[in-house]
């Protein structure tokens, strides 16, 4: 399908006619972001890593919300896989207008128990992957004169955390990437980030005893885990028409876990 063939939801939808790529889309957080983008009128490229069944189910759900969808599998650390996947996606839906860099890797490991390969695994997914995907879509955004990017960082980039030195380092690096890229390609392409606190997802559920939750939320104002559906609206705001003054900013979606 060519760009001229693109059709979107109603003109009243704030993201109507836009194509959004969400990496790591089939996880709880990514899926919630996809749903909110679809509700606001965007068509969705559902990126995953060999999770075909989950991606198929999510696409069906998003199509029920009125979005056109395409599912693509690629390792974000592999430049050739990413290029091929995005080529297929754009052939079907058209150019990427919105990029949400949500795919990530988190591993609990003390620094003294971390070897270089483990360190590089975290950096490869959380930083290299963002670079590779962003580098793939930015030229088209600049050529068309418009684009919006949201990078998913973490409150741990600000707070730090025992056993997560590599992850905290990568997520802090992502904020530097966001600010520098905002200056480099803005205002043509609007680049921002979000920094969620601990979110209640299936990954967390097995560990979420009252003591575990208290330990991770005692510094927050709300004193509870966030919910995936509380994250999507901030993303749709940042890529929507109401955020024209937001460039290189980070929204702290952590219930007051980080203030300032």
From TrEMBL:
<protein>
    <submittedName>
        <fullName>3-oxoacyl-[acyl-carrier-protein] reductase FabG</fullName>
        <ecNumber>1.1.1.100</ecNumber>
    </submittedName>
</protein>
<dbReference type="InterPro" id="IPR050259">
    <property type="entry name" value="SDR"/>
</dbReference>
<dbReference type="InterPro" id="IPR020904">
    <property type="entry name" value="Sc_DH/Rdtase_CS"/>
</dbReference>
<comment type="similarity">
    <text>Belongs to the short-chain dehydrogenases/reductases (SDR) family.</text>
</comment>
<dbReference type="InterPro" id="IPR057326">
    <property type="entry name" value="KR_dom"/>
</dbReference>
<dbReference type="GO" id="GO:0004316">
    <property type="term" value="F:3-oxoacyl-[acyl-carrier-protein] reductase (NADPH) activity"/>
</dbReference>
<dbReference type="Pfam" id="PF13561">
    <property type="entry name" value="adh_short_C2"/>
</dbReference>
<keyword id="KW-0560">Oxidoreductase</keyword>
<feature type="domain" description="Ketoreductase">
    <location>
        <begin position="18"/>
        <end position="197"/>
    </location>
</feature>
<dbReference type="InterPro" id="IPR002347">
    <property type="entry name" value="SDR_fam"/>
</dbReference>
<dbReference type="GO" id="GO:0032787">
    <property type="term" value="P:monocarboxylic acid metabolic process"/>
</dbReference>
<dbReference type="InterPro" id="IPR036291">
    <property type="entry name" value="NAD(P)-bd_dom_sf"/>
</dbReference>
């Amino acid at each position: 399908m060519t760009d001229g063939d693109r059709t979107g939801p109603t003109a009243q939808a704030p993201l109507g006619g836009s194509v959004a790529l969400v990496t790591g889309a089939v996880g709880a957080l990514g899926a919630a972001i996809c749903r909110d983008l679809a509700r606001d009128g965007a068509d969705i490229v559902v990126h995953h890593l060999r999770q075909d069944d989950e991606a198929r189910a999510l696409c069906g759900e998003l199509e029920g919300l009125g979005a056109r969808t395409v599912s693509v599998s690629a390792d974000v650390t592999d430049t050739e896989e990413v290029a091929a996947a995005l080529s297929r996606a754009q052939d079907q839906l058209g150019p990427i207008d919105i990029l949400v860099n949500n795919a990530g890797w988190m591993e609990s490991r003390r620094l003294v128990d971390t070897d270089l390969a483990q360190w590089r695994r975290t950096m490869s997914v959380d930083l290299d992957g963002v670079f590779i995907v962003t580098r793939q879509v930015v030229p088209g955004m600049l050529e068309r004169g418009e684009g919006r990017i949201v990078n998913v960082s973490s409150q741990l980039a600000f707070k730090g955390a025992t056993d997560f030195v590599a992850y905290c380092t990568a997520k802090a690096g992502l904020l530097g990437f966001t600010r520098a890229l905002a200056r480099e390609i803005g205002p043509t392409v609007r680049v921002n980030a979000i920094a969620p606190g601990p979110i209640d997802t299936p990954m967390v559920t097995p560990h979420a005893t009252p003591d575990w939750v208290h330990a991770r939320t005692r510094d927050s104002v709300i004193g509870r885990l966030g919910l995936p559906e509380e994250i999507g609206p901030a993303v749709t705001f940042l890529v929507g028409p109401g955020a024209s003054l937001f460039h290189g900013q980070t929204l702290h979606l952590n219930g007051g876990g980080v203030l300032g």
